[in-house]
Design goal:
Helices cover 15% and strands 37% of the residues. The protein is α+β, with helices and mostly antiparallel strands.
């Protein structure tokens, strides 16, 4: 003889979905976890399935996620300027020439040739106010 379980019995066991944090990247340092906000990140440097996250403090952290995945996690207006570089436009200081940008950390990064027109249009209109 089977006993019937009333559906309300399990209501206490069901947890509401947790909200995912946005604009934060989790970095594991040994047994510590560091949370980096989008505003702290100057740029991302991709290396296959790994990404170096460069911060405003000058430190870089290795994360075992692709650059595309991290950009999606950040949910911010990061610009992919090259196959291996995504920048935070808030830290953009200048465009040195058609194929290079300068960030607030002093780093100069290349812009891919095929992305130059697209990046130039975005930067001119929104960030650097260049005609």
């Amino acid at each position: 003889m089977k006993t019937q379980i009333h559906p309300t019995t399990f209501q206490n066991l069901i947890h509401p979905r947790r909200k995912k944090r946005r604009n934060i990247v989790t970095v594991h340092l040994g047994n510590k976890v560091l949370l980096l906000e989008a505003k702290e990140i100057t740029y991302l440097q991709g290396d296959g399935n790994y990404t170096f996250v460069h911060t405003t403090t000058g430190k870089r952290y290795l994360v075992s996620k692709t650059m595309k995945t991290i950009s999606a996690l950040l949910n911010a207006k990061f610009l992919r300027i090259h196959k291996s570089h995504t920048i935070n436009p808030e830290h953009l200081v200048a465009r040195i020439d058609a194929g290079t940008v300068l960030l607030s950390c002093g780093q100069q990064l290349p812009i891919a040739r095929r992305r130059i027109p697209e990046i130039q249009e975005i930067l001119a209109g929104e960030y650097l106010h260049i005609n």
